[in-house]
Every structure is written in structure tokens, then in C-alpha cells.
Amino acid sequence: MGFFDKLKKAFSFEPEKEENEAEKVADKAETETSDANAADSAEETSKSELVEKKAQLEPDQAGEETHETDGENDSEQSASKDVLEEKIHETDGENDSEQSASKDVLEEKTEEERYDKGLAKSRKGFGAKINALLANFRHVDEDFFDDLEETLIEADVGYETAMNISDELRDEVKLRNAKKKSDVSDAIIERLVNLYEESGKGEDNALHFAKQGPTVFLFVGVNGVGKTTTIGKLAHRYKEEGKKVLLAAGDTFRAGAIEQLAEWGRRVGVDVVKKPEQSDPAAVVYDAVVKAKQENYDILLVDTAGRLQNKVNLMKELDKIKREIPDAPHEVLLALDATTGQNALTQAKQFKEVTDVTGIVLTKLDGTARGGIVLAIRNELKLPVKLVGLGEQMDDLRDFDPQEFVIGLFKGLVAKDR
User: Fold this and answer.
1) What pTM did the predictor assign?
2) In this predicted model, what pLDDT tens digit does every residue of 361-410 receive, in sequence order?
3) Taking every pair of C-alpha atoms in the chain, what is the biggest distance, in angstroms?
4) How far apart are the C-alpha atoms of 119 and 126, rounded to whole Å?
5) CA distance 130 to 101
6) N or C end: fewer C-beta atoms under 10 angstroms in the chain?
7) Crossing angle of helices 402-410/181-199, nearest 10°?
8) Tens digits of per-residue pLDDT, 292-302?
9) Is omega for the bond preceding 329 within 30 degrees of 0, making it cis?
10) Is pLDDT at 60 greater than 90 in this prediction?
11) For residues 188 and 191, what is the distance between their CA atoms, to the nearest angstrom?
């Protein structure tokens, strides 16, 4: 089953049923909440009663003389206390198990929820553009396809992608004899999704690690795209996984870049190799690579001084790395700001000419309506997106999941078969 079929089956809508379904979901949620609150209340009451009985059985501290009968009573009270304590612990254990089970259920839904929330602006923006295109729709003609091309370009799917889809839809819409707005909208989205799926065949979205010795990831990108923040969040991820992580502050020319990375190192609790501003970036990288090898670090994340207008520094840094670790860097990741739309695509094209980029880190995806840029990157550049920023929290830097992305971008925009 292709991406579009899954999308249509699981996340399509029926306009006339939307309101009723929403009411049912709301009623169900309210009922479940009431039941859960009642259950919690009953558990708390039961636990309180047990604790109260335990308190009543506490030994008298008035200082009276101890008699044999008192000793017997104390033994009985002690036994009763032990039983009550055991029951209380059992209750706590049951609550902990239930909370743990609930947490596991929530974690299973996390990835879908993250993409859903992170792509909300893009989904809303794309839907609005399609609705605007179809607002005055009467029939399919050349004017319609001109407007479609303009709409898709504005949605940041890329010029080539827009032209390809427009050309392919000319025949497809006619073959379908599409007359209703929903039919035309479905045809557009289906073609977008299918083209995205076809372009991604054989695409490698995984991050690659060294078979032995330290893994080196090199990060490139223009100022302000979130490159340093990405390094910090990735360092946090690997530190939490139990890996020994080292950062290299190789961007020695941008004001504040060294201190920014050093602050991330302090926050995350990992070491940072740095030198004063205006130092030789290649020297910083060399020191970091040597340290990573000698002190058995698992991961080395390198912030670079590579710039589009001056690729010399980047080439020197790469040379220093390869001298010490011939098969490194294991990834060269280009950080792109999703909010810049087509400018990000232009940057990707230019960086691809400068160095052997292995993948894209698309930052700030949650803060823009320009999520369509992922389609352009895949269709036009054949570069895999490997990481995406879906929020501001430390764990909102996620591995890119093509299927979750498609669902997050288009769900609710496809009409269900009648």
C-alpha cells in the first residue's frame, strides 16, 4: 500500500460527518475522563482508609509500664501494621504499574503526535492555498493549470516539482473526468504524495556510525539556521543513550559561536574542544579528533567554519579529520531553516557543490507553513532529510520519518471515497 492509500484510508474526511464525529470524540473523551477520575478517587479513598487504620494501630507513646498482655497486644498490632503496610505497598505498586503502562501507551503515540503538531502550520497553510485555488473553480482548463503551478510554487514544493505535477495532472484529471472540487484536490495531493514516494525510492534517511572508533558528524550551514542548537540537542540525545560525546567549536569566526557551543556543552554535560575567536578552525578540529581517539569518545560533533563564500576553511577541516580518521566524517549534515522556504533550497544546491553533503537537518519546521520544502529537497536535489526540528524542547529534534511527514502534512485534506 502506497503513502497516498494509507493517507486516504486512515486520515481522510467526510465533510457532512465531520461535525457529528467531532461531537462523538468529545463525548467519548469526557466519559473516559470521568471514569478515570472516579477510579483515581476510589483508589485514593481506599489508600487513605488503610493509612488511617495504620495510624490508629501506632504504639502508645505515653510512657506506661509494659505488661505481658500489652506485649501480646503489641504483637497483634505489629502484625496488623505489617499487613496494612503490605496492602498500601501493593496499592502503590498497582498505581505505579498502571502509570507505567499509561506512559508506554503515550510513548507509542509520541512520534505521530510530534509530526502532527510540528506540521500543523504547514498543513493549514497548504490546505488554505488549495482551497483558494479551488474557490472559483468551474472546470479544468489552461488557466486552472497556470494557477495550480503558481499555487504549488507558493507552497514551496519547488519550481520543477510544480511544473512536473501540473504536466502530469493535465492528462490525469481529464481521464478521471474530475468535476468536483474534492476530486481535483485529491488528484493534486495524490500526485504530490506519489511523486514524493517515487523520488524517495532507495533513499537513506538513517544516520551512519563508525564500525569502530569515534563517529564524526560534520555540520555545515549559514548563520542563523539553528546549526549549533542542532548539535546541542543531538549531543543530549547521545549522552542520554549512554554514549561519550565530544563537541568541537570549529566556527571560530562568528561572534559568540564558540561560547554558544560551550554553553550547550555545560547544559548537556559533555566536553567541548575550543580555542579563542579567530583561531584556525582546522586546528580546533584536529585537536578534537585527536582527543576523541585518545580518550575513547563514541561521538564527535563538529561545528564548522565553512561558508558558501569561502570553502577553504571547510576543505582544511575535512583534511584534518581524514588524516586521523580516514573514513570520517561519517556524516556531513547541512542545516537548513525551514522558515526560509525556497532560500533553503538555494542554499542546499550551493552547499552540495562545495562539499559532499550526506543529508539535511531541517530546523524550525514547527514554526513555518513552508513544510513543502521537504518535497522540493527530495524531488530536485535527491538529498535525504535525516533530522527535523519539530519543536523547541530538547527531544524535539527527531529522526526524519517520510511516512509520518506525509501524514502530518496532508492528513485531513483528502476526501473519503463515497
Assistant:
1) 0.72
2) 999 988 888 888 888 888 888 889 999 999 888 989 999 998 888 888 88
3) 105
4) 10
5) 41
6) C
7) 160
8) 999 999 999 99
9) yes
10) no
11) 5
User: From the CA atom positions of the chain, what is the Rg in Å?
Assistant: 30
Residues 32, 10: Cα–Cα separation, whole Å: 23
382: number of Cβ within 10 Å: 12
409: amino acid identity, one letter: L
* Contact of 289 with 216, CB cutoff 8 Å: yes
Grid cell in block for residue 65: 509500664
At residue 248, φ and ψ (nearest 5 deg) are -120, 120
SS3 per-residue string spanning the chain:
CCHHHHHHHHHCECHHHHHHHHHHHHHHHHHHHHHHHHHHHHHHHHHHHHHHHHHHCCCCCCCCCCCHHHHHHHHHHHHHHHHHHHHHHHHHHHHHHHHHHHHHHHHHHHHHHHHHHHCHHHHHHHHHHHHHHHCCCCCCCHHHHHHHHHHHHHCCCCHHHHHHHHHHHHHHHHHHCCCCHHHHHHHHHHHHHHHHHHHCCCCCCCCCCCCCCCEEEEEECCCCCCHHHHHHHHHHHHHHCCCCEEEEECCCCCCCHHHHHHHHHHHHCCEEECCCCCCCHHHHHHHHHHHHHHCCCCEEEEECCCECCECHHHHHHHHHHHHHCCCCCCEEEEEEEHHHCHHHHHHHHHHHHHCCCCEEEEECHHHCCCCCHHHHHHHHHCCCEEEEECCCCHHHEEECCHHHHHHHHHCCCCECCC
Inter-axis angle of helices 68-118 and 120-134, nearest 10: 40
140 Cβ partners below 8 Å, 6+ apart?
173, 174, 178, 184
Which amino acid is present at 127?
Answer: G
Nearest alpha-carbon partner for 301 in 340, 245, 260, 347: 245
Q: C-alpha grid cell for residue 66?
A: 509494659
Beta bridge partners of 220: 334
Residue type present at position 282:
A
Q: Which amino acid is at 101?
A: A
Q: Of the candidates 267, 261, 230, 263, which has an alpha carbon nearest to the alpha carbon of residue 248?
A: 261
Selection from 288, 296, 300 nearest residue 219 by Cα: 300
Question: Under a CB-based contact definition with an 8 Å cutoff, are residues 261 and 274 in contact?
Answer: yes
Q: Are 186 and 127 in contact (CB under 8 A)?
A: no
Residue 55 pLDDT: 46
The grid coordinates of residue 235 equal 549531543
